[in-house]
Amino acid sequence: MLAWLAFFIAFEPNNYFGLKESSNSTAPIGRIRAYEADPGPRVILGDSRMAHFDLNLVEEVSGRPWQNLAFGGASLRETCDLLEYLLDNYPQLEEVVFGVSFYSLSAAYDVDRMSTLQDVLDNPLAYCFNLEYNVNTLTNFTDWLAGRQGGEETGDWVYPDDYTDAEGNVYPLHLQLALYPQSILPRCENFRINESQAQRLYELALRCEEQGVELTVVLPPVADYIMDTVCIPLGIHQKMGEFLVTLEGWSEECGFSLLDYEWTNRPDFDDDTQFYDGLHLDTRYGLPQFTEMLFTQVG
After folding, report:
1. How far apart, in whole angstroms, are the C-alpha atoms of residue 232 and residue 221?
2. What angle (nearest 5°) sits at the alpha carbon of residue 287, between those of residues 294 and 205?
3. What is the pTM of this model?
């Protein structure tokens, strides 16, 4: 048991116990744990589209340091939970960048992992005996043995190799982007806004104003290809247009900034070179440009 515990502590990827200098984990528990150890006044929240900023570049552009608590797959409910947790527990909080999108605003995507996560944060034994974190530890160990590093969402796509599928079909866009709409269609059909969680965002925006926290709500860009193959055919653009009017009204009432790069202020990014897939910018060729664009507007 002691040998297993020593192994677990040595290779668990989230630096839960704070014994390592830092952690590259983008898992929610790793990011929250890092923030708890060194809570700062400025945070980034949201899903995977907000999770991979180069924080050195963010600081250089904005002129002040930030911490990133965004994580892959975060639903609107979970991002609201995190903001509420920060407002409840960290009076030093001054600025929040809060990422949303049509995907996280969808009522069809209402994941709730924060209550379970809180139990693990409060109980080290629950963390050690959690199956998911043990699997993560074994994966981290095997990656360490093999010398593998975390994969970057970037590519220097070569035609026709990266444009041709296993059946020999050649696409006008690299496969990572060309096939991506198929993976998100099930959660985009019959799209409707998650009204209850959108209302929570409004209420949390009011709390931010009351507590003197400067809130910026950001809708990051998506590829034109996603607009053409998913959003417009499914009528998402119309429903999001209506909700944006609501968001603009809330921003005036609650005093937060609204930066919409998804619908009304779409940057002129090239699908095939600056997007890794339809929702995520290429971390080398697209995300740095968006970082400069966004954080010159924040604050």
Report:
1. 15
2. 40
3. 0.93
pLDDT tens digits along 204-233: 999 999 999 999 999 999 999 999 999 999
Q: Using DSSP bridges, classify how beta strands 67-68 and 257-260 pair: parallel, antiparallel or unpaired.
A: unpaired
Amino acid making up residue 193: I
Q: 79 is written with which tokens?
A: 């991002």
Report residue 204 as tokens. 């949390």
**How far is the C-alpha of 186 from the C-alpha of 176, rounded, in Å?**
18
Which of these ranges, 23-27, 65-69, 289-293, has the smallest mean pLDDT? 23-27
Distance CA 28, CA 74 (A): 9
d(CA 272, CA 269) in angstroms, rounded, equals: 9
Of 144, 151, 148, the residue nearest 7 (C-alpha): 144
99 phi and psi angles, rounded to 5 deg: -90, 130
Share of the chain above pLDDT 90, in %: 84
Distance CA 41, CA 95 (A): 6
Is residue 52 predicted with pLDDT exceeding 80?
yes
The conformational region for residue 96 under phi > 0 = left, psi -120 to 50 = alpha, else beta, is beta
- Tokens 């998911």 found at: 132
Closest CA to 162 of 172, 153, 152: 172
Please calculate the CA angle 164-168-172 and round it to the nearest 5 degrees: 40
Relative to beta strand 95-99, strand 214-219 is parallel
Q: Does residue 275 contact residue 283 with C-beta atoms inside 8 Å?
A: no
* CA pseudo-torsion sign 78, 79, 81, 86: positive
